[in-house]
Amino acid sequence: MESANPKAYAKITENATQAVQEVQQLQSTGYMADQIFVLAHDSDKSERIAHASHAKEVGMKEEGVFDSIANLFRSRGDELRAKIVSLGFTEAEADFYEKQLDLGKVLVIAKKNQP
Is position 24 within any domain? Predict the structure, then answer.
């Protein structure tokens, strides 16, 4: 499933290499590094991919203070769904994407800054 809602674009990739390639492709089309996010079920993997591709991890700026603090007490699956929703996706989309992350895939999200 690939989403291209007006708020954000998302693509599921099979592995870190494909995620880095997707980030590079998005950057070549005009997205800035701070507009591209990567998510993997393993938080260390998310961090490594974000660093290698010059993308971002979803943080307090995107989630807000309340959700960032709440994530300290959530399961990783709940945390990932909250992060995906914070980038403009529905609960159903977040659930679908989180299940893909459970399978070891990587989610790349590009979001234009809202005026």
Answer: yes
